[in-house]
Amino acid sequence: STVREFKIDASVNDLILDTGLEIYFKDTDGASIASSNANGQNIKIDAPDTSSASMELTSAGALKIQGRNPASTTSGAVNIIAGDKTQIKATDNTGTIRTGHLVVQGGSAVQEVVINEDSHDYVDFRVETDGSDKAIYVDADGGLAGTGEVHIGGSGGAGWNGDFNVHSTSRSRTLFVDGQASKVGILLQDGTTSRPQAELQI
């Protein structure tokens, strides 16, 4: 049988649990959890089936946090709580860690979610729809001045054949842009689905 070891080494302040998954608490290096699993799975924490918590970190650098109850796959939650600021960062194609991608700002009277904090020229923002990958697109360093540009309905010459509709308190079609016919309607009649009949209809 395989011998497993649980050891406390007071001389170097180590707590070692040798079960294939090793847990170290070191006063100089902090706390670490490491595994020599040949399948490449570094760390996996599973909760009982009655719970809704699961976390997995692979040696390839993929982190999965799942908040789902196996007994009811449509229920569960993942909560990330920070007292001041929560940031999501990513690396670029050279492996350099970039900042400012997504920031949730707390710790003040004004709570906000910021995309591209510190106004970097390399962080663009886009929203996709069924017919466009840039239905809403913020080009961080685009525009005539090179200081940023906002596109509605795509970018470039191809554009987008979707519609853009602005509602107001008294009208459901205050401003309507027909992306299929390249026509614009202003203050169109409520309760109708007809499109503008001219390039500009008021």
List the SSEs and their pairings.
Blueprint: E1 5-9, E2 14-18, E3 21-26, E4 30-35, E5 41-46, E6 54-58, E7 63-66, E8 85-91, E9 97-105, E10 112-115, E11 125-127, E12 136-139, E13 149-152, E14 163-166, E15 175-178, E16 183-186, E17 200-201
Parallel strand pairs: 16-17
Antiparallel strand pairs: 1-2, 3-4, 5-6, 6-7, 8-9, 9-10, 11-12, 12-13, 14-15, 15-16
Query: Biggest sheet: strands side by side, in what order?
Result: 14-15-16-17
> Can you count the helices?
0
Largest sheet: 4 strands, mixed
Average of per-residue pLDDT values: 78
Return the structural class: mainly beta
C-alpha-based Rg, rounded:
26 Å
What's the total count of β strands? 17
Shape: elongated
What's a concise summary of this model?
It contains no helices and 17 strands. It is mostly beta strands. It has a four-stranded mixed sheet, with no helix packed on it. A three-stranded antiparallel sheet has the order 5-6-7, with no helix packed on it.
Describe the protein.
The structure is a single chain. 4% of the residues are buried. The chain is mostly beta strands and 202 residues long. Strand 5 (41-46) and strand 6 form a beta hairpin. 0% of the residues lie in helices and 41% in strands.
